[in-house]
Design goal:
The structure is a homodimer of 428-residue chains. Chain A is of the alpha/beta class. Chain A contains 13 helices and 16 strands. The first copy, chain A, has an 8-stranded mixed β-sheet with strand order 3-2-1-4-13-14-15-16.
């Protein structure tokens, strides 16, 4: 039996335990003992946290880092550059790119990624022989990087409300929601792979087809993800076409519910917030992307108070750093509200780990407890950034960065040791 | 003669040059050659930037990291905790603390720090035998850490407009501005030490004594720093007492001018912005602190357009990372404006290096040019964060962190090599 000994570990419901031995069997935690000697267990120094879930990823956007951030303009200018990358990828090149991206995630302590995937087809929209080969490449990339993946198969039918797909967008489209569902059903899972479904946005799926996607997701017990009100222009277009907000449109399509995950939710009305809360919709914030793309600051605390669970995603991968995302959720709240302590440390860790795993259909993961997957992240507490604190969890959340992750274990197996990825050399 | 060879270097006015050899004599750059072989020069990989200036530091606040960030409340609640640390320090313990803080700065690429110093006296306000012994400790700390320092001697007379100092504040006070000036004049400089002066804020220096501090600074050719409108409550108190904004009060005291550096400048009126711009006041933003303390987002772009030069400081040291400060200046603008590209990459590097050095009275430093101090920072371009970009400067500004700094040279002497501080072991 494999065992790990943690100098300090974050145990439910939210406390730092010391000298913790974790025995692992079949990838899960089989025994937990506190205040014990390490014995022959593998030693993890610093603070051991449950693995982080990155609940919203577009892997190929990583290729834009250090290129488009310099640009002027807004979200829509950036989108044109993103499409230029999308046009160039094929299954082989996407496997290589995504392997590097997921390895970067592993190095940052992310043990489960939700890939919001819409780059389904070949150039011009011609399906590949295997119409799901692009997401098979993503599953292979996650396996190579040693992390779990939820393939969130995204329905993307229009290039705006009432507008056909064009250019790179042709690669995203299945024609209609029924054909999307038929293709999506043909996918095959794996031990490290689970499925989700998505409506790209109310821009990209006509109102009368949203229900088809939502019902298909419900029938398969998959979570339904939706980009929601990231930009004011989306709200304006929705109001012009349908006379209501995107949230209201999703409510009419009976898509709102506890198995839905709204991405961004930046520009909401008070009624939107009440609707999302009433239906216990989960909301995934992507703070480092939302600031990079000049989206704005969404009402995170209001949504949580209304009844929504929150999770976090690195989305465009301008930065891949779950510590920075946790911090930014709280920091953006501070900037908008003038108050500190809008989310406390246990809440921020919960958002980054357990809630993210829920949003991705791994409800058993994201905490260190008996019977849960042994997904562990050791954060060094002796770096220039983390030294000197007296509260290890607060230090990890408010002072650490991805560079302070020393060891990562997924399903009991070491993936990162002393800051080095054990399977993907020379990440990048 | 000592020489460095840079794989890539950022040269004025703002371009990446390749294969650059820098010869150093008497701490300054004596020759620059591009597209040459390394020969026997010390090799610096990645991108070499000019050393960063941290234009606003309160070294002892570093002791609060991972302690107060977890707190609720606002700026004023945080200030009580900060005072509790201030009460405990003496010259010996401050030397040890500041050495670690400045070594953390060196590791992050900061080669010059501006210490906004007001912890002048012993407990209860009793002067030490040498009344400047606390700042002598700071100078020694900077020497130990291998960086330059500007000791910004701060006049701090009242605990709010019309209120006496109390508690820890007693250690800050000199009684009046004339006694402040007499003490300040007794300081002695060093090769790595220059001087500045400060009015702590309009809260802490009565209106009729601000001019005394400003004139003393002008007479010594020192820059005059002032905390300005960080919190709405400061503006309210100023309006109530004087019937004008803090900026207007400084204008009446004839303190505004190109040798003044306003810190924060978060909550300004349009007239304030025009006044600061008209007088070419420099403005030091502290974005990671301003978000941590829930201060808000100041009008950086407006101030720059009005005629102000900008610089950056890590202030409370919630984070010490000049890359994060550069990014945050732009990202906070994006969040507030909904637009990207408010500051371009050359502008952000200029703000973090040259403009910061100007604000600290080292106008010759902060760029790699003939005759300037050989202060160099090498940023690795092959980390998980920085790999894959095609624009080294954009990658450094938008993707790198302090953890990507590999080598730091100050005045031609190596201070950090391969991420390790050469003089201060086990930083922290």
């Amino acid at each position: 039996m494999l065992s790990y000994w943690c100098e300090q570990a974050w145990l439910p419901p939210g406390r730092v335990a010391r000298r913790v031995r974790l025995d692992v069997a079949d990838g899960a935690v089989a025994a937990i003992a506190e205040d014990v000697e390490p014995g022959d267990a593998r030693r993890l120094a610093g603070l051991v946290l449950p693995g982080f879930a990155n609940a919203h990823s577009h892997a190929f956007h990583r290729a834009l880092r250090g290129r488009t951030s310099v640009g002027r303009g807004d979200f829509w200018t950036w989108r044109q550059q993103m499409y230029a990358v999308a046009e160039r990828l094929d299954p082989d090149s996407y496997l290589r790119l995504a392997t590097a991206v997921y390895a970067e995630m592993a190095l940052a302590g992310i043990t489960c990624v939700g890939e919001f995937h819409y780059l389904h087809h070949g150039p011009g929209g011609t399906p590949y022989d295997d119409p799901n080969v692009m997401q098979a490449a993503l599953a292979d990339a996650a396996a190579a990087a040693g992390i779990r993946i939820t393939l969130i198969d995204t329905c993307y039918l229009t290039g705006g409300i009432g507008r056909p797909l064009e250019g790179a967008q042709l690669r995203f489209g299945d024609g209609d929601a029924d054909r999307w569902a038929a293709r999506e059903l043909a996918r095959t899972a794996g031990r490290h792979v689970r499925f989700g479904a998505a409506v790209h946005s109310v821009r990209a799926v006509p109102a009368d087809q949203i229900a088809t996607v939502a019902e298909s997701a419900q029938a398969r017990d998959n979570r339904l993800h939706v980009h929601l009100s990231e930009q004011p222009a989306e709200n304006d277009a929705c109001r012009a076409a349908y006379g209501c907000t995107p949230t209201e449109l999703l409510a009419k399509a009976r898509a709102l519910g506890p198995s839905m995950v709204a991405i961004h939710a930046t520009h909401l009305t008070d009624l939107d917030v009440r609707l999302l809360g009433f239906h216990h919709v989960e909301v995934c914030f992507c703070p480092t992307t939302e600031r990079d793309l000049a989206d704005g600051i969404g009402p995170a605390r209001q949504l949580a108070d209304a009844g929504c669970r929150l999770s976090l995603g690195s989305d465009s991968h301008a930065i891949i750093d779950p510590f920075e995302e946790m911090r930014a959720l709280e920091m953006h709240e501070r900037l908008a509200s003038g108050e500190r302590g809008r989310f406390d440390v246990p809440a921020l860790i919960q958002v980054a780990s357990r809630m993210g795993h829920r949003a991705l259909g791994w409800p058993e993961a994201g905490r260190i407890a008996l019977g849960t997957p042994a997904d562990l992240v050791a954060v060094g507490l002796d770096s220039p950034r983390t030294a000197g604190g007296d509260d290890p969890a607060a230090t990890a959340v408010f002072a650490a960065t991805a560079a302070d992750v020393t060891d990562v274990v997924v399903g009991g197996r070491p993936v990162v040791r002393e800051g080095v990825h054990l399977r993907v050399p020379d990440v990048g």
